[in-house]
Amino acid sequence: MEIRDELGVEATAIAELVDLEGKRVLDVGCGEGRLTSFAAERAATVYAFDPNPKNVTAARTALTSEQRKRVRFAVHDAEALNRPRERFDVALCGWSL
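The structure corresponding to this sequence follows.
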């Protein structure tokens, strides 16, 4: 596993700029779940996706059972995102571009 942002600077910045409490969060390119678990701790719901099924499995495994209740995972890329009639309050996209 590649370790990025060991000091948690990114999560700290997000927490200072955006209140995720009760929000519907879209996690674009969730990778192994670094931001997914951060969002699941705070948000009402999280839709997390990544084109790599191994990453999605790792992200799911990294969550607590309580966090898993609020997160839906999918395997696809951003171009295949098709969530008709669903709105998100916040989109997170860390290291995916």
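The first helix runs from residue 9 to 17.
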